[in-house]
Amino acid sequence: MANFSLTEEQSAQLHDVADRVGTPFYFYDANALRQRVADLKSHLPDVDFFYSLKANPNMSVVSTLVGAGTGAEVSSRLELETALEAGAVPARLLMVGPGKSETDLERAVQLGIKAIVVESLDELDQIDRIAAVKGRVQSVALRINPDFQVHGARLAMSGRATQFGIDQSAMLNAVDRAESLPHLRLAGLHIYMGTRILQTKTLYENTRQILNLAHVLIGKLAEPLDFVDVGGGFGVPYFEDEAALDLANVGDALRPLIKSFLDKNLKTRVAIELGRYMVAEAGLFVTKVAQVKMSKNEQFAVCDGGSNLHTAAAGQGFIRRNFPFTLLPATPRALGELGICTMTGPLCTPMDVILSAVDVVDPVAGDLVCIHQSGAYGPSASPVNFLGFGGPAEVMADGDQLTVAQAAPAWQDRLAAQRPKPVRPAKLPNDAPLPEPFNHEVLHRITPLKGLFEKVGTALENDPEAWTTLWDDTTVRALTTIGVPDSHNGFSLAETDLGISDCSHALHVAVIERLAQFDPSCILALPGPSLSGGAVLAAGSDDQIDRFFNAYRSGPQGTFFAVTEPEVGSDASKGTTIVTTNSDGRMVLNGTKMLVGGVARAKIGLVFAQMENTGAAVLVMLSPQDHSDCLTITRLPASGLAGADLCHVEMRDVPITPDMLIGARTPGATTLRDGFMAINGVFERNRPVVAALALGNAAGMLDRLEMAGHATAFAGMRRRYASLLGRLALVLEDQARGRPRSHRISEIKHQAIAFSDDLVRRIPLQAATTMFTDPRLRRKMRDAKAFEYMEGTSNIHLLNAFRSFASEVPA
Ligand SMILES: Cc1ncc(COP(=O)(O)O)c(C=O)c1O
């Protein structure tokens, strides 16, 4: 067996963590986790790996593994949400387990995960029913308990009578049933034979038998399977007589088997789900000696954590044998003779032994005992609450960086959770059916963008260029260029996985609402055509349209729309930005605009101005780079909706040519006024977008509150949200019928913002702790304040009030 000693440096680091975080704790090494995934992929390149969260559901561990390229296998709501928050996309999630709850299944269907692994015939019916209600088709995999057995696993899960999966004898029945149910799609086969396998030949036998069965089964199916999950069960050595798996050897044995299967089944992938093997060796458990004493001639060292935190090391579940360990003396001291000592935890049972009669030199109180091979089935598989000690801290080292990956829960919080509260019969409306278009299939398909939006939303706080990460995503690109005429659009929706080739205005608003749930700031940062695009299309000449949209054939193009002025707000009719004609007959533009979104990085946009000679309103199309010497663009300080990138613009004698003026040449329009009526229509169409942004951001806050256990307290707000979406849907329906009702448009915008404000007001009253502990929630609360500036109001006071308020709200 390998040598498990620690270097001086590692020992010092563990002492340091003990001093700073307290004992007992678990310690994970991020680089070791990444290395494990890299090794697996290099030896088994044709396999899709899934990390089984059951082995260690710590979010930092999961996000390291997901970041290294694994999918995730989950069994509960917490595991599911952990995987999502750690960055796993639904398309790489499997849900496995013999007793999934109805609500967990609903959530999985809502997300449209890669597959729910079905463990009984009844569960097939249950998922079909749930998917029918949601108007979805859910992919499922059948977990089969085969007739064969594989010998060599320390714990066999299949091949005998168990609660897992569907017997092989009933497999064809299950296939018929799955294929006949309209809301299910049979996507995979799953067989999990057992765990802690340490022999290549056992893994070979396991994989061979499963792939054989899969091949026969696929031959009988209407459609080929997407994947066969052959389980895994790769073990790590814990005891002296155990040797580590030789991964090169495993790769050499499995690769030909897998290749031959893939060659015969071109549409099917092979998946392996591993828990222990991915994490065990990257984790240590560290506990401190509290007392050393003799009892009837035997020495005992009682530690502050034992089987309550590390059941596996205490042999509960396996046979009672010692895990590898290292004693880290509290202070350097002359060491005496090797003696025999039993290390125990603090529990009231003689079973609480983590190291039984080990050879060790003189342990004293304050020494650290470090148990190796401890990254898997640690705290989450241990009775952490026995005697009230509570869970341990978990610490992750990533290179030089140390983070507390799980704080040990405070006794105060655990006590608070037990103070009696009345049981309320709460029917939570989170999953209540939503009206068209807010229930559109596309909205589920964009769910995988959530992690990306959250990440970029945070980055935008400090870096206005962070939007480029969004633009790297094909789906985001196509969504950004909705509104660009097909003739100029190089990023068609048809090239995405969204299943649509064009997008109605109503659906576009629903998409924005959904994306705002993830992060509204990102939407404002995206370089789309926005309002000015609509205005150019409504009132520009063919040449102007071509000039405005040309860049979208091949890349992003930031745009801006400058209306608001310091003295008059956004009441365009009172603007003082002016186009004058010099004595030599040349036109120049002068004026000041404020709260102009994105102009600092825009390639083109419109400035609302007046012609000095006629007093007529006009839109001037400008490319800021072409006039940099006549423009001063200053970014405004604002802490909400950073992606809006609000700026102040001063224009001094910007030379204007007639082809930059928009408004007079609308096809069919005889006067400038006709052009502006068309532009006004564009504004009216876009106004519901503000409501969508505010509602989406509010729904994002509700999601976070519900995740933190406040679903009941905020159930009323969730209902109000659903009813406001209903009203917004009616406004969109009017618009789609060509009969927009302006007052309703205005009403829903105000209602949405009032609702969002109300929610923000309630959070500190009803969920203060969550507000303090959830930075994402706080950011959404801050963003909510910023919708005020989108009010389109002419009230300069309101605008200024917003600006000073937003810059004072703490991050
Ligand atoms: C269905 C299933 N998948 C995956 C695992 C993870 O096993 P291991 O940690 O041995 O890789 C288990 C363990 O019980 C399991 O039951």
From TrEMBL:
Listed GO MF terms: diaminopimelate decarboxylase activity; flavin adenine dinucleotide binding; oxidoreductase activity, acting on the CH-CH group of donors
Cofactor(s) this protein requires: pyridoxal 5'-phosphate
N6-(pyridoxal phosphate)lysine modification, residue list: K54
PROSITE patterns from the UniProt entry: ODR_DC_2_2
Gene3D superfamilies in the record: Acyl-CoA dehydrogenase/oxidase, N-terminal domain, Alanine racemase, Butyryl-CoA Dehydrogenase, subunit A, domain 2, Butyryl-CoA Dehydrogenase, subunit A, domain 3, Lyase, Ornithine Decarboxylase, Chain A, domain 1
Catalytic residues in the record: C348 (proton donor)
Keywords: Decarboxylase, Flavoprotein, Lyase, Pyridoxal phosphate
Entry coiled-coil feature ranges: none
GO BP term, pick one: lysine biosynthetic process via diaminopimelate
Domain Acyl-CoA oxidase/dehydrogenase middle per the UniProt entry, residue ranges: 561-654
Orn/DAP/Arg decarboxylase 2 N-terminal domain segment(s): 33-280
Name of this protein: Diaminopimelate decarboxylase
Organism: Yoonia maritima
